[in-house]
Specification:
The complex is a heterodimer of chains A (297) and B (235). Chain A contains eleven helices and four strands; from the N terminus they run H-H-H-H-E-E-E-H-H-H-H-E-H-H-H. Chain A is mainly alpha-helical. In chain A, the strands form two sheets. In chain A, strands 1-4 form a two-stranded antiparallel sheet. In chain A, strand 2 and strand 3 form a beta hairpin. Chain B has one domain: P-loop containing nucleotide triphosphate hydrolases (Rossmann fold). Helices cover 39% and strands 26% of the residues of chain B. Chain B has ten helices and ten strands. In chain B, a hairpin with a 2-residue loop joins strand 9 and strand 10. The radius of gyration of chain B is 18 Å and the shape is globular. Classes of the chains: A mainly alpha (297), B alpha/beta (235). Chains A and B meet through helix 6 and helix 7 of A and helix 2 and helix 3 of B.
Chain lengths: 297, 235
């Protein structure tokens, strides 16, 4: 039953989940805030696809780039308009702000566009299949895997070799010390939001690509997945998020095949049962940091 | 170079500094000593822009530091090596140092700066690619100081650099500080190790419950009975 085709689709979903989790943890690492408005960035990507795609004759690739840029811009704006103002206040204030931003964006879409699902035009590659080495797989799965790998490699290079990437990682370790080395707080946080938005934008292409439609509440599912995935993987590291997302995706797919037909409705329940088991065995998540955490002061 | 006047800082209802005044001249090594809770770290934090004072003034080269962000103050030339070292544990030695040079833009200088750092701290060359969190306490302290030097600060503030280090490493730190000075650094040092601090400092301020109780040269302070009672008597 577990065929090569099946594996490809499992890896495709898992890599999408890995990206999702990474986008959430980039902000969490620095602000220690779970950004509940993260799902809405995927919604924004979807609506840009819908609006630009149905009102212009631009090639799909350009529409897709517009969707990613749209998610990045909105993510940056939420930081500028909402989060920056409450950053110095309590963590609770930040968290509630993220709920408010999420609700505002959702209701904005509801009012301005429509509560009903809007069909999004997708390029042919999303619905075609290819036959490689005698195996037929949907092109979409292969595209998802390729884009995920490319994005992960790109982000790894950014985090490892650019001064901005190093500053972002340092800020996740110790934000105050990073500022004391002359790294502007606003630069670090804005960059984190822009990166998170970019990832959400790319994910939105494939997320919307599965159903070819977008609704105001479409962000809830991916937000929950990203959140649980980061908890599984360990919220303290970027690698943890990627691993968590990948594992979550794989488990989800495998439960789908292994559960008997009668229990398939309880897929989510079994999913969370496994998550609870993982957390019981490894409370800090799958990926632990390699050094002792010293708490000073 | 640095002039602090009547500085007051509060943590909620608790007054941590009740009017501290001090000055550091160019090229000087000034030490702040005092018991735990006297306000030494608070003074450094206020200068570095981490804490907002209630009143008082902090002038650095004729510019006020009040209300400036920590990143702006670093760019003006003041670097703080905080207590407990605060290196980035998940970054390598190299990345820690690169970040120290964040405020500098000259790539070729970065290379020659590294050479100088390796001369001062040979161990850091050996540990160049190692994760910061896996370095020993003494190595982390050296990295923290080296990282601050990468920014070419005009004034270096060291908060208890010898705290929690093995005796041989304490020796190393106390030989390093005069070396840094010979290279032209202006240093504001906070230390618990009063004996050794008095040997290297130009001037000393003794803080007690948020006030400057005594100030003067190490000789002047040694002759005062207060410091003998509080510190030197204990050995």
């Amino acid at each position: 039953m577990i065929t090569f085709e099946f594996l490809i689709s499992a890896i495709s979903l898992a890599s999408l989940y890995a990206l999702l989790a990474l986008g959430l943890v980039i902000i969490y690492g620095i602000l220690k805030m779970v950004n509940f408005a993260y799902g809405e960035l995927i919604m924004i990507g979807g609506y840009v696809l819908y609006l630009v795609g149905s009102n212009t004759n631009l090639p799909w690739l350009i529409v897709a780039v517009a969707a990613v840029l749209g998610a990045m811009a909105v993510s940056y704006l939420t930081e500028l308009v909402a989060f920056r103002r409450v950053r110095e206040k309590s963590l609770t204030a930040l968290l509630i702000t993220s709920f408010a931003v999420s609700t505002l964006l959702q209701n904005g879409a509801l009012l301005i566009i429509s509560p009903r699902a809007k069909a999004v035009a997708l390029p042919k590659v999303f619905s075609t299949s290819v036959t490689l080495f005698g195996i037929t797989t949907p092109m979409r799965s292969i595209l998802t895997i390729a884009v995920s790998i490319a994005l992960l490699v790109g982000l790894t290079l950014l985090f490892r070799y650019t001064i901005l990437g190093i500053a972002l990682r340092a800020a996740a370790d110790n934000f105050r010390m990073t500022r004391m080395l002359g790294v502007p707080a606003n630069l670090v946080i804005s960059s984190a939001f822009v990166l998170s938005g970019a990832i959400a934008g790319v994910v939105s292409l494939f997320w919307i690509g599965r159903t070819a439609s977008v609704t105001p509440t479409i962000g809830l599912g991916p937000l929950l997945i990203a959140f649980v995935a980061t908890v599984i993987g360990g919220m303290r590291s970027l690698v943890g998020a990627v691993v968590g997302g990948f594992v979550y995706g794989m488990i989800f797919i495998f439960i789908g095949v292994l559960l008997p037909q009668t229990l398939l409705n309880y897929r989510e329940a079994f999913m969370f049962l496994i998550v609870i088991l993982i957390l019981l065995l490894r409370p800090e998540g799958l990926v632990r940091v390699k050094y002792a955490q010293e708490r000073v002061g | 170079m640095l002039r602090v006047d009547n500085l007051q800082v509060r943590y909620g209802a608790i007054a941590a500094l009740r009017g501290v005044s001090l000055r550091v001249d160019e090229g000087e090594l000034v030490a702040l000593i005092g018991l735990n809770g006297a306000g030494k770290t608070t003074t450094l934090s206020a200068i570095a822009g981490i804490l907002k004072p209630v009143s008082g003034s902090i002038m650095f080269r004729d510019q006020s530091l009040i209300g400036r962000s920590p990143e702006a103050i670093l760019r003006m030339g003041i670097a703080l090596v905080p207590e407990g070292r605060d290196i980035f544990p998940s970054l390598t030695t190299e990345e820690n140092l690169r970040l120290g040079a964040f405020s500098r833009h000259n790539r070729s200088e970065y290379r020659s700066d590294l050479e100088e750092i390796f001369e001062l701290f040979p161990i850091l060359e050996e540990r160049f690619h190692q994760i910061g969190g896996t370095l020993s306490g003494g190595e982390q302290q050296q990295l923290a100081i080296a990282r601050s030097l990468m920014a070419h600060p005009k004034m270096l503030m060291l908060d208890e650099p010898s705290l929690g280090l093995a005796p041989t490493l304490v020796d190393q730190i106390f030989t390093l500080i005069p070396t840094l000075r010979l290279r032209g650094a202006t240093i504001l040092l906070v230390e618990q190790n009063v004996d050794r601090t008095l040997k290297i400092a130009d001037r000393v301020y003794l803080l007690n419950t948020g006030r400057v109780e005594l100030e003067g040269s190490p000789e002047q302070l040694k002759s005062q009975t207060a410091i003998k009672d509080v510190y030197l008597g204990k050995g």
